[in-house]
């Protein structure tokens, strides 16, 4: 017996579909034969016909046969869609994604293999009768049992997964805000280091490092909280408020440090020397202007 590479159950399903297709094909062929027979019985009653009469009869027969064939082809296409709908619906219950290759529908080798399979299955009338009486029915998948429990468990897991995703998005948003504040603070420190010198900001850099460790620890705590699913939203908000207070405190200390550094800079020898030089230059400019005024005419 020819085989199509299916297991026994699926091969029986293919045979059932081919039996259905054969019955539809036989019915449509009988309809087309009846069209020709009706033409013979109703029109071919005379011995001779003119060319116009023959052309008119053939045209009418062509219209009828064309409509029958078109109807059958459309019905076959729609029937195949319904068959695919059954298969896809069963696959989706188990979250499977089936794929089709339309190019394989014109594979001559496979088509000949199907033809041989059909010929081998339906040549014996006794075998046909036996299979007619023992047609298996496809068991529904939407009833109770293991599949129903599996679907419920999958739905529950999906709902829990969506909740965890929403929680993760909230935590990521809050952590991102804290990291943005840290980045702004780091930029301010770098700008201050360029102006006043790196040696004046060792203490503040250490504070920033401590703050980074605090943020890293907070992020780690967020991840642990997410994985364990035990921490509440209020705890996360409290941690973020504490971090915000720390950031504000460091910003205030930075402002004070900047003022202190500016004050110390004004007390350095370099600042005093520069001030004395500017004072001397101003005195020289005044002296030069006095000298120039002696040579300028009075207005």
From TrEMBL:
- Family assignment from sequence similarity: Belongs to the LZTFL1 family.
Check the UniProt entry and state the signal peptide residues, or none: none
Tell me the keywords, alphabetical order: Coiled coil, Cytoplasm
Pfam entry (one): Leu_zip
Per UniProt, subcellular location reads as: Cytoplasm
GO terms of biological process kind:
negative regulation of protein localization to cilium
- What's the protein called, per UniProt? Leucine zipper transcription factor-like protein 1
User: What start-end ranges are recorded for coiled-coil regions in this protein?
Assistant: 147-291
GO CC terms in record = cytoplasm
Which residue windows does the record flag with biased composition (Polar residues)? 122-133
Region entry Disordered, spans: 122-143
What is the annotated quaternary arrangement, including any partners?
A: Self-associates. Interacts with BBS9; the interaction mediates the association of LZTL1 with the BBsome complex and regulates BBSome ciliary trafficking.
Functionally, this protein is described as follows: Regulates ciliary localization of the BBSome complex. Together with the BBSome complex, controls SMO ciliary trafficking and contributes to the sonic hedgehog (SHH) pathway regulation. May play a role in neurite outgrowth. May have tumor suppressor function.
Primary location group: cytoplasm
Q: Which organism is it from?
A: Lepisosteus oculatus
